[in-house]
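Appendix C reproduces, verbatim, an entry submitted by the partner laboratory led by Prof. M.T., so that reviewers can inspect both the input and the predicted structure.
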Amino acid sequence: MANPVHDERQHGMVGGVERAATRTQGRSLEAIFELESPSGRDFDNPRHEWRRLFSEILGTFFLVLVGAGGGVVGAFSNGAIERAAAVTAPGLMVLAIILFMGAVSGAHLNPAVSIAFAARGDFNWRRVPGYIIAQLIGATLACLVLWAMFGKIGMLGATEPGTGVSDLQATIMEFLLTLGLVSTILGTASKAQNVGTIAALGVGGYIILAGLWSSPISGASMNPARSFGPDLVLGNFDHYWVYVVGPILGALVAVAFAYLLRGRGGDISARRAAQGTIGTRLEDRAAQQPAPPADGDATT
């Protein structure tokens, strides 16, 4: 004959095990969520700032190497690189950079983007100067490499207003192009429309699109750092103001449009996109390591 008391105890033990397993699973999911959703403290951890700054130098170096390099290699090869290829390459490079190091620094690669993220509340203003300096360094290094390899040909890929295009026309074009670029970046980074790493496709695709239809007007820079490198190495800043004023104004208007479309910024998805998650990933993995047993602890 079955013992009702025994059966009830056994059922209770099974239920307890199931509840414990559920709690363990819940804690595991919470740990994963915390790993993917860093806190503000982790974003601002100065121990990892050197990694972020190096990431911006490296990423901007590759971007300008390809962006300016198209003009240089085109001149060196007697026009073997067509305009469509020259404007497509930077977009593909940005796509790759976002995928391989976006989690480290946010892959801004552009002072206008850093300013926009800060104005939106997704990035700390005190980190903006360091990012901009890193971007300018990366751009300059890329142009120095191109100069060392090919000489000062093809204007080192400098962005200039096209033939018959005034500085004002070029500034307006850069304003409009950057307005679209930063709107794409902020939109794909926001909580409402966050698409994760697929955002790289949107950003890279926009850069290609902008270059295909507008590069004869202004060079489709949309990036003060991209234009700074060639101008510094050439020692010619005659038109550089066009590529500072236009992109920065466009970025700030994009921030205003983002507020009108989605309200205040600063949500966790946008902060992750703007600041990267390198600090949280390293620290959380260390925190998840089991602590060694204290002396005298006994196992049962």
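The longest helix spans residues 4-36. Additional entries are available on request from the coordinating office.
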